[in-house]
Amino acid sequence: MLSKISLVALTGFLLSPAAAGPVNGNDHSPASKRSPLGISLPPLIPSIPGVTEPLASNAPPLPILQIPTPPLESPPFTGANIKPKKIGYFWTGAGDNIHKDFLVTASLDDDTFGQIIALTDVPTSGNSPHHLGSSLDGKTLIGGGLLSLLKTQDTAFYFDVSNPYAPKFKKSNRALLSSIVDEIRAKPEGGFFITYMGSAVGTSPGRLVETNAEGDIIHEWPEDVAGTLNILGEQFSPHGLAVDFNKGIILTSDFVVPITILKPTLGIQKASTLRLWNLSDRTIISTITIPAGLGIQDVKFIPGNPEGAAIATAVGPGQVWIIYPFRRDSSGKQGVAELLFDLGSKAKDSLAIYSDITDDGKFAYFTITLGNHVAALDISDLNNVKRLDDPNETQPIIGPHYVKISPDKKNLLVTGYFVQGGDISIVNTPGDYKGHWLDILPDGSLSFNRSIDFESIFTRDRGGARPHSSVIFDLTDPKNPKTERRKETRFAGGVSNKFPTELPESSVGFLLSFLVVYGLYAPWSSFIDAGRWFPGTFNEPDIDADNDLYLVGAGRADITGPVVEINMMGYADPKQLGTGLRQRLYARAFIVGSTERRNDRFIYLVLDTQSGDTAVRYGVLHGLAELGFEYSMYGHHNLALTGTHSHSGPGAWLNYLLPQITSKGFDQQSYRAIVDGTLLAIRRAHESLEPGHLSIGSTKVTGANINRSLYSYMANPEEERAKYNVSAENDGSVEKDLTLLKFQRASDGKSIGALTWFPTHGTSMLGNNTLISGDNKGVAAWLFEKSMRKSSDATKGFVAGFSQANVGDVSPNVLGAFCEDTGEPCDFKTSTCSDGKSQKCHARGPLFREKDEGASSCFEIGKRQYTAAKALFDDMGSKSQRIRGSWVKSFHAFHNMSEFHFELPNGTEVRTCPAALGYSFAAGTSDGPGAFDFTQHDSNSTNTNPLWKVVGGLLKAPREDQVACHSPKPILLDVGEVFNPYQWTPNIVDIQTFRIGQLIIIVSPGEASTMAGRRWKDAVKHQAESLFAEETDAKPVVVIGGPANSYTHYITTPQEYGVQRYEGASTLYGPYTLDAYINRTLNYLPTLGASFAKGPPAHAGGPFPPDNTNRSLSFITGVVRDGTPVFRSFGDVKTDVEDNYAIGDVVRATFVGANPRNNLRLEQTYAAVERLTIDKGAIKRWDTVRTDYDWNLIFHWKRTSDILATSEVEIVWETESDAKPGTYRFRYYGDSKSLGGKITSFEGVSGQFKLH
């Protein structure tokens, strides 16, 4: 006679495709999915012998399931009429397993401790309430049922706690493929990740379940159990769960197979493994094993750990292990486990060890259930962990299990109960059924304080109570309620819900028949109607709708770092130190978002810096995480940090060693100025968000760029070049198109910003310039913003961003390169002069005859960009198109370029290489020649001074395969394989794309050459036309922006690479660098489609690049003190202005100064021009009319005595033609530093002068 389980299996076999014979994995015809009974069913899970089939030998019989019975009602409960600041929520089971299970709301305040405020019943009983978790906004709690499966009841219970003193039961549900709700982690965009420890019948494998914000189950991961887990003989029973939304990873820990704790059993099946997941696609990267772990119950990331480390509890040996998710073991497998601490004999075989960590990462606490003990560790130094409790102490607690640290880190809440399965289970742990409130002492140790006795409170009405888990709310500040939610969940790392168009092939019969025989689940139609599993039921947006409304915002903030004594970033000349300020630097933030989906948005940043950077990006992302839930939608996936490529900003802020060498290392002041200012710009853009429209147009800009490596460009195929050679004035060697995106708010039609893309290097200011400025892009932005100040069609804070495009071989020095000694053009191939060297070859801007370090030419090139952009902006109605489509999508991935193997479109297999720089890199360009005897177009290292071969070899002699991989580049610096004292250049790069309607933005980490950028854009445009054809009839518009995120030098075509001029020698990853970028971009492009619109934005996680901010070297000395000349004070005028000037004259004054590094005066000014105004009432006032923001007001600083520490400041105003006649004066704002370190502000004021 068949048992019920046998009947289930037999019925399943008859219904499954397997019964008809082997299923071809490549056969997707409808017939391949039909059962012998003619029923067409969607596949659910793979058929895995020994795992999904209950008759297998390693799947013990499921006990007879209990028939659900209506729970007993309890008498009405009247709670205490109090509103404490600290609340404890306890997910509690009735002691008799007959009355309803319930949520207890209790006071944790000192004066009302333990008073019950409310009881919230759920509709069922006997669930054995398990873990409890909170949403990030603190409005929803979710509790799981440990034994719900046995009563064929829902397993997850949701509570509305928007009124924290009166929770309401909201709903319950269950998963289809899995059961036994364990750990819960909230997602920033709403919803939860939940570990379900067992399959639908309590066996292995379990699942990682994902819900949306409403608590509906949207997926059960992993999708490919067989392929991912190699589950044949490998247990998968996820219990512990940790999510790092910053680093894009998940850790789950395997505990026990749930069904093996039930009678009859051959013994509990315990696991010794953890799984490392890729957050973006929810796939398992690797399995990490703890030797003889015998049940890894818990895992939690250590907040603030630079390696993203986590701690895991191994129940069998009673140990705490540290997990390094980004380290690799000796075999190269990702994820390493190391023993951190042995908790001693009480912890060994304790059945359960649960943990919590303070949000500063200093202290960790562990409950040892059978040892009746709570342990405390100081983990602030992982190399010297200290135990803070006495392991031999007898503590006043029985069966401690769930542990939570209060938000203020002053208390620990521990429940004295784990599980009691009764007659059907072999696991029945002792407990005192109390909620223990422990004090955390200043050194991290613990003191038992008081407790809530649930058993005594509820014995009469509910047969006692079993409090398993808890959540703490701190309402001290009602406007900013705090929970104990983990720091790991506060970061909006951005993730992807990947709903497949076809679910994986599987044998589903046993599961379906199981549902039918036992009545475990609702009819199939309920799943289909609810849209909980099948991709076609997710209410995707109407892609045909004429929807052109977006959330739009723009903001600008000051990022000007130290303007003196710091090496300038760009020309790599250690002698080029800042001596003052020509124009302040700014971060300009543009945000575009969906009006319907909170997480569908992106931030495009334009910084007046040489490039984007890994360290700065990390700093900005960490800062956004600290801003809390309101900013939780921003993360790696949707933040692009680009630089205008100005070579006139302060340096010493970059992540890798190579660019730090000329600046004498890393400077925190320079770094923080950029990070903090960028954060402020984002906040201003975010706070300005409101519905609006976007329009895009393009125009030609003449006389603002030329190709500085024309010889390399000519190496590209003639037929390709011919497509762009349209006239004598536009031979196609550079792109003349400027693309502009116009931002307008819908409420009044006013413009809030303009974002442009146009290629021209930020090298108008020459290598002998020592004044900080944003170069020609900074000028263009200033002119545009200045022109909009009085416009009635623009908002007050109008922002103009001038972003770079495919700028790699493009120069603003439009007259070409000439030799300084002869006046003749430089050599076409090598950019050398008559002496065979490059040092005398310099490019000339349009006003090169003005001996002003390039300032006049810089202004002119900026003005030409502004003029074209403003004309286009003003005429957008006739020359633009409205951006249309209801989706705003983004993608980001980190990709290791050191050895990426891939196929070209023609089928050729190629690879990239670890980063290396060639000999021509050291030659520099005509915009900024290098030193010594290096020349461009050098593909033969034998032509070079042998001294440099020795220098390159001292760094690291490249391997033979590295030389072959980079050929024909002769390797000067094998920087990608040098890691001492830390990495010299990046091997891990950012791949990122944004999409709004028909606009696609390629975010490039390097400087793409003109033709490289064209190929990249064309490839994207071609694929987008086919991918998105059904979504919009508008042709794709593709732009490229950069250098962004992690600066990776140059990106050239293979033909340009072969010429080995500067750009090719600086293409880091070999001749197929461009092809690799195109390959990765096209690979991820489908994620920008409307079919992905319901999922959160995509971020593919690791491997993450290093953050070197806390270990970078620095040999930059700080300011020791400031002094004044005898009989002088700070701010005194040394050389005053004259009495009268004509408009167009230059006005100067000098002051007794102090070092500007004492105060960066962000969002302020060092210098000001004030104009005398006399009101009608004859009241005089001085109005500020020029500041550091203005191009024509210049601030010079000069050290006059090293011994006396004296200095002077010169303020210069190049009066403009539109300056008003009147009476003026200068004001100098300074800050001096005493020998003791005190900084004191002061001011200086010049005499008055008249401007005629």
From TrEMBL:
Keywords: Hydrolase, Metal-binding, Signal, Zinc. The keyword Zinc applies. One of its GO terms (molecular function) is N-acylsphingosine amidohydrolase activity. The active site is at residue 811. It is an enzyme of class 3 (hydrolase). PANTHER family: CERAMIDASE (PTHR12670), NEUTRAL CERAMIDASE (PTHR12670:SF1). Residues 550-1079 form the Neutral/alkaline non-lysosomal ceramidase N-terminal domain. Residues 1-20 form the signal peptide. Pfam families: Ceramidase_alk, Ceramidse_alk_C. One of its GO terms (cellular component) is extracellular region. Belongs to the neutral ceramidase family. Its cofactor is Zn(2+). Binds 1 zinc ion per subunit. InterPro entries: Ceramidase_alk, NCDase_C_sf, NEUT/ALK_ceramidase_C, NEUT/ALK_ceramidase_N, Quino_amine_DH_bsu, WD40/YVTN_repeat-like_dom_sf. Residues 1092-1250 form the Neutral/alkaline non-lysosomal ceramidase C-terminal domain. Zn(2+) binds at residues 645, 761, 1007, 1050. GO terms for biological process: ceramide catabolic process; long-chain fatty acid biosynthetic process; sphingosine biosynthetic process. Its EC number is 3.5.1.23. This is ceramidase.
